[in-house]
Amino acid sequence: MIQVYTGDGKGKTTAALGLALRACGAGLKVYIGQFIKGRTYNELKALKKFRANLTVEQFGRGCFIKTPSPVDKELAQRGLKKINQIISERRFDLVILDEINIALELKLFEVQDILELIEKKPEETELVLTGRNAPAEIIDRADLVSEIREIKHYFKKGIKARRGIEF
Description:
Elements: E1 2-6, H1 12-25, E2 30-35, H2 42-47, E3 54-59, H3 70-89, E4 94-98, H4 100-105, H5 111-120, E5 126-130, H6 136-141, E6 144-147
Parallel strand pairs: 1-5, 1-6, 2-3, 2-4, 4-5
């Protein structure tokens, strides 16, 4: 199955991590590839407790990207190559591509690259793609799409990202 968590609301990565936690609890092998991200978030510290069943790799510089640099593109391309390898090796039951939709929006690679990855995915591998602005082609191909919509957010009151809640 292909799952997509998209939308402008908070919680897309959190939903994917909840699924990863559930899969680990069931003894499944989980791989999380985080695009754009490159710093240590507290959820990654917590996930270390599941290292027997869970692998996390980051393919970003550790800063928010508005205009990607050649380094950003190189890191994303390296990540995509690694994900293709992970999919072909069939070692993981659940593969999460965190913020892949943002990487697509920033043109770090093409939608066709992800559609080809989806086509190569073994039937028994669950694939989750997160990030706002999921392309229509990805949504059309997915089996489950959840849109997380912002109705109200405390950031608009000037409240900054909080340790343990946003990171």
